Structure formats: C-alpha cells, structure tokens
C-alpha cells in the first residue's frame, strides 16, 4: 500500500468545506488582536491548527487514579421491615405458589375473554379488576396501567381497591419482563416498603397487602435483592 502524507490523510478524513488560500505560517501572529474579516478568521484558524501537535498525550497522575478508582452506583433496595412486620419464609412461599396458580388461570381464560364484547360503560380503574377486563390487555396496556397506578401510589396510601388492581396487573405480566415493567415492579416494591414504615400497628390490614406485593416482586419475579428477610 502506498504511503500517504499525514496532511493528505487528514484532508481525506476531514475535507475542506470552505476555500482557504494558503498563508505564511511564519509571519507574525498576535492572538490578542481580533480578526476583522472572515479571511483573517480562517487564516487565524490555520495558524492555530499548525501550532497544535499531531499527537497529544494526556499527563495522568497514577496516584490520583488509584485514590478515585471506585465508582458508586445507586442500587436502591426496599426499606427493611420494622420489627415484627416481616412475613415468614413459609408465608412468602405460599403466596408465590398461589400467585402462580392464578397466573395459569389468567392464561387459560385469556383467549376466551378476548373474544367477548366488553361493556363500553366500564371505567377501568374505578371498576374491580375482573378476569374479563384484565385478560383483554396486551403487555403494553398492562405496563401502561401499572405505570399509572404506581405513580398514583407514589403520592398516596394503599387502598384495598388499588391493591387488587396491582395484584391483577402483576398476574398479567408475562416473563421475561419488558424493561419498562422490570423498572416499574421494582419501583412498586420500594414504595410498598416506604408505606409500611409509616404504618403504626403491625396488625394493620395494610401490612399483609404490602408484604404480599413486595413478596411477589422479589420472589416470583426474581428481584431477590428486594426480598424481606423472614421473621
């Protein structure tokens, strides 16, 4: 292969866009004087470029690199359950098994309900999550509704109606999860752990519901870093 001068190689990769007359790079150049015409500006660019070395080597202090080589990445998990609030491992395993059965039922009836006519008067969020409703949703719709409810839950407490909808949407999520769904269910589990911290009494009816959602996200959907430590 023929040898190509460095200047030609650069011009081949970065062709000139404007015609510039060659200038005498040895003549006086005062950087403090601003260019008065476009030609003087282009001439100044030529002179400054000629003064730049072909290869620049960064001066790196190895001592500074050694001190700052670690990178902190925030992988926020769930808030630990208050003492006495965390469910037993047996309870968590039972919930996962029951949830798996419900998911199988949803999948079995999905084709049947998709063929049925849905009443146009049904308001999705204000209506119980009947199988006839959730079975019609594709994964994009499930994810969209889950995102809406998760954001709503982010500013409010858990109600029985909201809990039922969240449970039903989780039952409709297909594995492997879409990236958006993966992020949403982790957000949901974290929010449940935050709300649980605000519950004064461990016998409050919200505690098992919050524990259930955390359990399903962490143990059924394999987000084990979010799982509660068994009591």
Mind describing the biggest β-sheet?
A: none
How many DSSP E strands?
Answer: 0
Structural class: mainly alpha
Please compute the radius of gyration using only Cα atoms.
Answer: 32 Å
Count of DSSP-assigned helices: 9
Order of helices and strands: HHHHHHHHH
What is the typical, i.e. mean, pLDDT?
Answer: 78
Protein topology:
Layout: H1 6-13, H2 38-50, H3 62-67, H4 89-114, H5 131-134, H6 139-153, H7 160-172, H8 179-197, H9 206-220
Helix pairs in contact: 4-9, 6-7, 6-8, 7-9, 8-9
Would you mind describing this structure in some detail?
This protein is mainly α and 231 residues long. The protein has 9 helices and no strands. The protein has helices at 6-13, 38-50, 62-67, 89-114, 131-134, 139-153, 160-172, 179-197, 206-220. The longest helix has 26 residues, at 89-114. It is elongated and about 85 Å long. The chain starts with 5 loop residues before the first helix and ends in an 11-residue tail after the last helix. Residues 1-13 and 120-125 have low confidence and may be disordered.
Features of the shown structure:
elongated, 231 residues, mainly alpha, single chain, disordered N terminus
TL;DR?
By secondary structure, the protein is mainly α. The protein contains nine helices and no strands.
């Amino acid at each position: 292969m023929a040898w190509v001068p460095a200047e030609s190689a650069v011009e081949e990769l970065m062709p000139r866009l404007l015609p510039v007359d060659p200038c005498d790079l040895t003549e006086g150049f005062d950087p403090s004087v601003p260019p008065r015409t476009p030609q003087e500006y282009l001439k100044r660019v030529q002179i400054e470029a000629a003064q730049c070395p072909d290869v620049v080597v960064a001066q790196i202090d190895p001592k500074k690199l050694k001190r700052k080589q670690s990178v902190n990445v925030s992988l926020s998990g769930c808030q630990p359950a208050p003492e006495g609030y965390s469910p037993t491992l047996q309870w968590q395993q039972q919930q996962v098994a029951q949830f798996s059965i419900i998911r199988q039922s949803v999948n079995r009836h999905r084709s049947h309900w998709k063929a049925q006519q849905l009443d146009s008067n049904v308001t999705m969020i204000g209506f119980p999550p009947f199988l006839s409703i959730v079975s019609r949703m594709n994964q994009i719709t499930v994810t969209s509704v889950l995102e809406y409810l998760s954001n709503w839950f982010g500013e409010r407490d858990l109600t029985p109606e909201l809990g039922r909808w969240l449970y039903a949407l989780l039952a409709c999520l297909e594995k492997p999860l879409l990236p958006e769904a993966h992020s949403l269910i982790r957000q949901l589990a974290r929010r449940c752990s935050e709300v649980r911290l605000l519950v004064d009494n461990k016998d409050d009816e919200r505690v098992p519901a919050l524990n259930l959602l955390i359990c399903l996200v962490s143990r059924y959907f394999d987000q084990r870093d979010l799982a509660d430590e068994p009591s």
